[in-house]
Amino acid sequence: xxxxxxxxxxxxxxxxxxxxxxxxxxxxxxxxxxxxxxxxxxxxxxxxxxxxxxxxxxxxxxxxxxxxxxxxxxxxxxxxxxxxxxxxxxxxxxxxxxxxxxxxxxxxxxxxxxxxxxxxxxxxxxxxxxxxxxxxxxxxxxxxxxxxxxxxxxxxxxxxxxxxxxxxxxxxxxxxxxxxxxxxxxxxxxxxxxxxxxxxxxxxxxxxxxxxxxxxxxxxxxxxxxxxxxxxxxxxxxxxxxxxxxxxxxxxxxxxxxxxxxxxxxxxxxxxxxxxxxxxxxxxxxxxxxxxxxxxxxxxxxxxxxxxxxxxxxxxxxxxxxxxxxxxxxxxxxxxxxxxxxxxxxxxxxxxxxxxxxxxxxxxxxxxxxxxxxxxxxxxxxxxxxxxxxxxxxxxxxxxxxxxxxxxxxxxxxxxxxxxxxxxxxxxxxxxxxxxxxxxxxxxxxxxxxxxxxxxxxxxxxxxxxxxxxxxxxxxxxxxxxxxxxxxxxxxxxxxxxxxxxxxxxxxxxxxxxxxxxxxxx
Length: 522
Prior knowledge:
Number of strands: 20
Structural class: alpha+beta
Number of helices: 18
Oligomer: single chain
Strand content: 15-25%
Shape: globular
CATH architecture of the domain at 8-16 and 280-495: Roll
CATH class of the domain at 8-16 and 280-495: Alpha Beta
């Protein structure tokens, strides 16, 4: 197949939808509304530009990396991860597993929220009960195996799980495990907290201008080493070329998601360099299997999978080791990933055409593909090439490309139609996290996938401490869903950042960013 067939994308309907609403929290300050960073000392102010804005300041309802980069520096969790991905205590001083379902944790007694309130076991009880029981929260389904959280005294908490839970510590170290100030929320209300968040991490949010920036400053009540930066500004710049220009002209210190077409400009600027890091992020298409949709037909899903040539997309748009084809949502590098499905793809245009002909009876099969622009490297271009491939196979594709918050809304609200292009990461570094998408409660309203065998396998895998058995179970789940295709995985993406010449920083596999790990070159 020739890449020149991209021209046929003009036959698809391309809609560009953006979001321009700007609001600020009650504690918004002037520092968030300024269009530049003039008047600040670049040695003590860190400016980061990422591809989209924080969608919400509620850490239990934010499952996206842009929010996690902020939240990880604002809140404390029971556990943390080292740069080598080792799980270590954060505000826990000691813990024990009492039995297969009961764990007890002792907390530091010197942790305070930024308003001066002490962090106690009551705050842990409130936070983990909320995230594990409130079904309106995006994080809830991943925490549902927690049955009960109880404050035993001021600084000891007990967690009881629904059956053995081998991934509990993984879970407590990831997004959603953020500890909220229960007393403040009880007195002021949850909405007031979300508008003016209070955490116990090294930084506090002082302002948020939607679709523009979040401004953070040191938390004076932080129990650990004082924060390294007088101020951190996290800007939202969806357009990759604009992010690159800001970096190469000294407007920002770090940019995320640098696509290959910008690499030479960064490296040749003399002002910045590229840093490549491994990532658990997998680019895939979410496929709606709801009864009555065209993609409920397994032959249609197979035709889509066969029509898309992942290696051709990589060669055309993501060369230089940026991406590797894969047929599984569980990425290479996490526990339980299936090695036989990594580095593999099924492209077969002739077979795809035959299936479309069989199902459509000679008529094109209509599909809608929704994709982001500027959220991941070359995402809109990938969507255009996928559209061209599907069109060649005989599909009639309506391509909708959304900017920033508009795309987040479609994904978060589960209003996607037949296909949604997205790149998902594994925050727990365990296949159970990725494969959770194939359980009935998690899939409902988005893919509407349900397979009783997968449901039973996941129940078993999530409740055994036998690692060999867990791995066997998760491999089997991946084999099943690779054939049934509620997701059509495409490739695993590495992460590429642009970093100013006077900045030192090493990215991590989970794509988190601890601000105090960023240093100025002396």
